[in-house]
Design a protein that fits this description.
The chain has 787 residues and is mostly beta strands. 11% of the residues lie in helices and 29% in strands. Strand 24 and strand 25 form a beta hairpin. The protein is globular and about 95 Å long.
């Protein structure tokens, strides 16, 4: 039963009187040991209103500490809760720790990527030039290209894009001389989405700007140039000692010169398309951007003015010479492409680590059971009660015997959909969000995901973990009228069912499996749960080895093993380069950018990266439909009811043609809906176009038995695709297929074929009995049931 508003507010203790009465509780919020936040050079802050929080880790074991970082404009009640057996009833949750009332404390964020070079130019210069390639993603505001200046200082230099595609060139001499101000070119000098070679030169008498081998502006400027004591910033300007006006654009081959290059040399440099670095004569700095990963940018000049990439940026995009429209089916290799070049993509909303100070430190009790847990923040505003969660997973103690069942939480997918980390919540527990996430907070803080591009239009290729994670909220819905969920709440249905049934299990995250894929061998059964769409190569290989050694896998997921992801070494930045399927962040003409910066390997669909999911679990994605309309959902229809999982040890009572896995006609839950998987032969039968040139249509691996066929009423809408993700229109009601597969290579797979499989467990006892039979035949019994 859900608490009333009055009870909710009483528990929250947010009133000022309660705050004054509980000083000892407030004291518990202080960390016992200081954890250093991410150290950034001085950077323009962005203050985000509201209440936001995140944990330092996705999972934690008993006896370990977990740090929470919170920014809040109001006092909040903070508790740590292990979620209970009633998915939508927080009264059933177990309170593991009560921190009491936390005072209001807003912590700023510092978005925007650029390159910080601490060692700037020095002394007096009688000539100077700045040179780089840039491909702007917007031209409607002021953005730094390269600078060593501060807006309030009379020294330094700055080259910047201005509104309407102008270019501005500023030189400072400390306050004397003539012409030492900012000069700007005409509108339209640079355009969005096109590489431009830009040179700003000064020979002691005149300032000039050249673009693409042609002069576009010239102004008198006599005297001496004094760089000042500011750092060099590539992709930003400076104000009050802080980086500001960061660039939305791609940069390549950045250089500073102590001489003004002659006209002929500028034209030659432009014709080189950024592939040939300038010679050493007169170089003050040269950043060729050939690193393609990491945050260190090497200066190839003798001055060794090495830089640091702030807020990550995006590597592996190629340079001005690169034609990114590489074939979809072929053997393209970036290492063998002499025309690829190098570049770095910057975004003014890049943010992967809030860098907040620790607010709470909590040691997981030794007695804590594995499962899903949250830091729960509660407060009142204008008479309404609000809740915010920071979700994490409690694992099993290392020294305890492994659980027979390993339950894999689809945390990569929760992360992929985290489109609005600073989203505004409505009152109460129940929240609703689509692919764009919750409505963004005031001030438009960063809001991007693997389904939502950056503010200036750059596709999202990576996401950070040190930010709030509202997409992982266990009460978040994806369908309003249907009460459907596909993220953390979808995982909760299976977890709560296992717990109610008394099964011994351990819950882990995708990152846990990525880090230790060999851990699968310690468990009798792996349950792939919820919306397990995003897999790393390490996870794939671990599952392959587990099955090869006789492992047993239960798949209660749809759209499973679909996109490839990779992690940075610290496990704080998740990379995915989505192309050639809906939800893509790269257009086909950008396919050459699909290679990851973490491992330099092809990204995109797992099947097109050499790791097809069907080889391990037998099925591939058919499509998706409207998760908010009950008419788009359906049950399974039983077929092979002579299979043991229908009959033993519990009789399900199902006969061929019976519909199951639903609450009944026109009522949810129903197992089939939103996203679902089928056999290769089913995809081939539905295809209407020939196999694309250079591609191969695989066939069903031997040994798959279809137990039941799902129903999706395509007449009410939806989007179905063939194996190569070309649209099709099924003339039947084909939904997700339920299979049993004893693999010739080893191992056994039971695949339910739908995200909603766990959701339907509470609705249909026949489906719950069938799943208990599956676990029995995989060697796992409920406590008190004889083997």
């Amino acid at each position: 039963m859900k608490p009333t508003r009055r009870v909710f507010l009483q528990r929250s203790l947010v009133a000022s009187g309660a705050l004054a009465a509980a000083p000892s509780l407030i004291a518990q919020s202080l960390p016992r040991a200081r954890v250093r936040p991410t150290t950034l050079p001085p950077h323009q802050p962005h203050h985000v209103p509201g209440v936001h929080a995140y944990a330092d880790a996705e999972s934690v074991r008993p006896g370990e500490d977990l740090v929470f970082r919170i920014s809040t404009e109001v006092p909040v009640r903070a508790t740590v809760c292990r979620l209970g057996t009633a998915v939508d009833d927080p009264d059933q949750d177990e309170v593991l720790h009560d921190f009491g009332i936390l005072p209001a404390r807003l912590q700023p964020i510092h978005p925007g990527s650029y390159v910080h070079v601490a060692r700037g130019l020095s002394g007096r210069l009688d000539a100077f030039a700045a040179e780089l390639w840039v491909r702007p993603w917007r031209v409607d505001r002021s953005m730094g290209l390269i600078s060593q200046h501060d807006a309030a200082a009379a020294d330094g230099f700055a080259l910047a894009i201005g509104p309407d595609g102008t270019l501005g060139f500023q030189l400072g001499n400390g306050g004397s001389g003539t012409g030492f101000s900012t000069h700007r070119t005409a509108s339209g000098t640079v355009t969005r989405g096109r590489w431009h070679h830009v040179v700003a030169r000064w020979d002691g008498r005149r300032k000039e700007i050249w673009v693409d081998g042609k002069p576009v502006g010239s102004w008198p400027c006599e005297g001496s140039f004094r760089p000042g004591s500011h750092p060099i910033r590539i992709g930003a300007l400076g104000e009050s000692g802080r980086a500001t006006q960061t660039l939305d654009g791609d940069i390549a081959m950045v250089a500073l010169h102590r001489i003004a290059p002659v006209d002929e040399l500028i034209r030659k440099r432009h014709s080189g398309n950024g592939l040939i670095p300038p010679g050493p004569e007169g170089l003050l700095g040269l950043w060729a951007l050939s690193e393609e990963s990491g945050d260190r940018l090497a200066d190839r000049s003798r001055f060794r003015r090495h830089g640091r990439v702030i807020n990550h940026g995006t590597w592996m995009i190629g340079g001005p010479s690169f034609d990114a429209s590489v074939p979809r089916f072929g053997d393209y290799d970036p290492d063998r492409d002499p025309q690829r070049g190098h570049g770095l993509r910057l975004a003014s909303d890049d943010l992967y680590d809030c860098g907040w100070e620790p607010t709470l430190r909590w040691r997981v009790p030794a007695s804590a059971r594995s499962g899903m847990a949250v830091l729960r923040l509660q407060w009142e505003r204008e008479g309404a009660a609000y809740v915010q969660h920071a979700t994490f997973v409690i694992r099993r103690p290392v020294r305890r015997a492994p659980a027979p069942v390993l339950l894999l939480a689809a945390t990569h997918t929760w992360r992929a959909y985290n489109a609005a980390p600073f989203g505004r919540r409505r009152p109460g527990y129940r929240q609703l969000a689509g692919t764009d996430g919750l409505p963004n907070e005031a001030g438009d803080p960063p809001a991007f995901s693997f389904y939502r591009g950056h503010a200036a239009g750059q596709g999202t290729y990576q996401m950070g973990t040190r930010v709030p994670w509202p997409a992982a909220d266990p009460y978040l819905r994806y369908g309003d009228a249907t009460e459907y969920s596909h993220l953390a709440r979808a995982d909760r249905f299976t977890q709560a069912w296992l717990e109610r049934e008394g099964y011994d299990y351990e819950m882990v995250t995708d990152l846990d499996l990525h880090r230790d894929p060999g851990s699968l061998r310690r468990h009798r059964i792996l349950i792939i749960n919820g919306h397990s769409e995003y897999w790393s190569i390490e996870m794939f290989r671990g599952l392959d080895e587990y099955l090869g050694s006789g492992g047993r896998v239960v798949v209660l997921s749809g759209n499973t093993l679909f996109w490839r992801v990779s992690w940075d070494p610290a496990g704080t930045v998740l990379e995915c380069r989505k192309v050639d399927a809906p939800g893509d962040q790269l257009k086909p003409e950008q396919r050459g950018e699909a290679w990851h910066s973490h491992d330099l390997l092809r990204g995109g669909l797992l099947r097109e990266c050499g790791f097809p999911g069907w080889k391990l679990i037998g099925l591939e994605t058919l499509g998706w439909n409207n998760q908010g309309n009950v008419r788009n959902f359906g049950p399974w229809i039983a077929e092979a009811t002579d299979h043991p999982v229908f009959r033993s040890p519990e009789p399900t009572g199902l006969q061929p043609g019976d519909r199951f896995g639903w609450a009944g006609e026109g009522r949810v839950p129903m197992a089939n809906g939103h996203e679902f998987d089928v056999r290769l032969s089913t995809l081939a039968a539905l295809a209407t176009q020939p196999v694309p040139e250079g591609a191969v249509m695989p066939s069903d691996p031997p040994g798959i038995q279809r137990l039941a066929n799902g129903v999706i009423p395509w007449q009410h809408g939806g989007a179905a695709f063939d194996y190569f993700f070309r649209p099709i229109r099924p003339d039947n009601e084909q939904g997700g297929e339920m299979i049993w597969w004893e693999r010739p290579e080893g191992g056994t797979v039971f695949h339910a074929g739908t995200i909603g499989a766990g959701w339907a467990l509470e609705a249909d006892p026949r489906w719950a009995a069938l799943l208990r039979n599956v676990l029995h035949h995989f060697g796992v019994e409920r406590p008190g049931v004889a083997a």
